[in-house]
Every structure is written in structure tokens, then in C-alpha cells.
Amino acid sequence: MSHAHAEGNAIESLERTTLEGKNKILGFWVFLGAEVVIFGTLFAAHIGLRNEVNFSVSGADIFSLPIVAIMTALLLTSSMTSVMAIQAMHRHDTKGIAVWLAITVLLALGFLCLEIYEFYHYVHEYGFNIQESPFSTTFYVLVGCHGVHVAVGIIWISLLIGQLFKKGLTVVTAPKIYVASLYWHFIDVVWVFIFTVVYLMGKVG
Description:
This protein is mainly alpha-helical. The protein has helices at about 1-50, 60, 65-90, 95-125, 135-165, 175-205. The longest helix has about 50 residues, at about 1-50. The model is unreliable at about 1-15 (pLDDT under 50).
């Protein structure tokens, strides 16, 4: 009876943990819906005010597409490496998951460093700060908001790598990795829109 009782508790615990994982994923989709609304509002504001430069510089004057292209390549590659991490998870390859997530973090750090350099360059080379014009305000708020999300993702994935080494791949850690991958894909999709709407449209005027 004691063995049967213990086995029953183990099954119940597994079912509860699996249900919690599903709830986390469902809750995260709700969170992404709210994020879509936030970024949609920021995009709308930028599109509406992108020509309001107040006799200051415009995007066509300052944007450097080669740097932005490198940033885009880094972020899109990091999306691919996060997919590789999920594939490793399906193979129950804990080491492979950690390696691909670590590469994702390194690529994201490269992107973030370039974005910080880009902001620094705009401010010191052109005096293009957040208060310069309605265009500059919407630019820094939109792109900066995305940068903050990238930084959060870096911290999040780094903590997951630590959990993976400490606890291994379990029914608790696996949903967290999956959710983090969803978040990262969302960040990449947002950047594709930023690259198109902010930089390409800004460059052509």
C-alpha cells in the first residue's frame, strides 16, 4: 500500500507540474498579446510623427544601414540558434540546449552593444537626442523599448542556462525554455518591423 501510495503521489505531482507548464505557456501567449498592443501603439506614434523633425536631422541624414544590417543579421541568427536549442531539447540533449542558448545570448549581446553604440553615435555626432524632435522621441522610445526587451531576454535565458546545469532537463525547466524561445522569436519579429518601418522607411524619406 505504501508503494502504491507513493507511486500515486508521484503521478499526481507529474500531472500537476505538466498542467502548470501548460498554464505558463497559455499565460505567456496572453502576455505576448499585450506586448503586441504596446509595440503597435509605439509603431503608430512613430509613423505618425516620423516627419516631425523640427528643423533637426531626419532618419535619411543619420541612419547607417550597414550597421543596422549587421544588427539584424545578429538577431535573426540568434533566432535560429534558439530554434536549435528547442531541437536539442526534443532530443533530451541538455548540453546541446545549454550551448545553443549560450550562443543565442552572445549574439544578443553583440546586437545590444551595437545598438548602444548607435545611440551614442547619434547623440554625439548629430546632437540627435530624445528631446530633439517628435521624430527623435518616437525613435528612441520604440527602438529603446525593443532594446530593453532584448536585455531582459539575455538575463532570462542566462538564468535558464544556470537552472539547466543545476536541475537538468525536467518537466519544470522544459516549459521555461520553450516559453523563452517564444519570447525571443517575438523580439526578432518586432525587430524586422523596426528595421522596415523605422530604418528603411526613414532612410528613403
